[in-house]
Amino acid sequence: MEKFASDFYNNYRRLGQIDLLANNGGKKKLPIFLLRVVIELVFHSRKYDVIHLYDAVLSPLIFFVRLFSKAKVTFTVNGLDIVYSRLGYQIFMPFFLMKADKIIAISQYTMEQCVMRGIPKEKLMVIPVGYNFKSIEVLSVEKRIATMSKYGISWREKKILITVGRLVKRKGHAWFIEHVLIELPKDYIYLIIGDGPELKLLSKLVTKLDLIGRVYLLGRVSDEEKGNLYQMADLFVMPNIHVEGDQEGFGIVLLEAGQYGLPVIASNIEGVRDAVLNGKSGMLIDEKNSMGFIDSILRFNPDKSAILPALNSKFNWDKVITAYFEMFQDFSV
Fold this sequence. Notes:
This protein is of the alpha/beta class. The chain has helices at about 1-10, 30-45, 60-70, 80-85, 90-95, 110-115, 140-150, 175-180, 200-210, 225-230, 250-260, 290-300, 305-315, 315-330; strands at about 50-55, 70-75, 100-105, 125, 160-165, 190-195, 215-220, 235-240, 265, 280-285. Helix 1 (about 1-10) crosses helix 14 (about 315-330).
């Protein structure tokens, strides 16, 4: 979310005047950040036509805007900031959020979750996440060999599946290994990039199922190495499963994979579906439909050269920022 907010700011500056107040310290610095925001709102909110907050967690701040300013208040909501369920959050968040003038959901799923919590439909609209698509330099043979050698990956004459994301239950790594990978031909290998609380579970599962040499838990890798691995992969898989209170608001890594012309096979749930152009950039499969995943992995063969242009036409920052700009302009008139 922090990266999207930063990209939003940098892209919006090309169209209109904007000031940024950002929390660069993560959750530990959130209380200090909130105090800083309150002070800014008390003394400076009057000079703005629109105050945009990028997270439903900040919804109580609308009280201070209304008290000290006539500015319109808008929010971008992402998914987890809507479904989070601890400490009475589901009581105070909707109460404050519905007082906003406009709420932008990053996916249809996120908008549906808002409606379920009593947010009026007329206050909601969907604008997807933007992405800075860039041209990719073709990976040399030397870099291919160096990258695979570093991680000890036996890759020659293999079909390479890749996943990028935090190792948490909702990502479906364990389910995919147990129900899909084990049923695929043995020339399919699975690279998992990321770290998280399920690392030990996945490591034990790989050993238990005798999949050492077919599943590689790579942990965190550099951006350069990740790009190298994307270029060497055949398919990106995102086999998410539903976990109450920990849903996927969008699937930004699906756009990242598409930048490399990499087709995706993903679960047709939550915000994941919004990031896949079904049949063009990838295939959406019913959650936990192992045969659907297997069949698509074996048979899906799209025109890879068409993936990036298709995604760029929908998710490029120019289009996303224009949608925000026009919405803000309506408030400023």
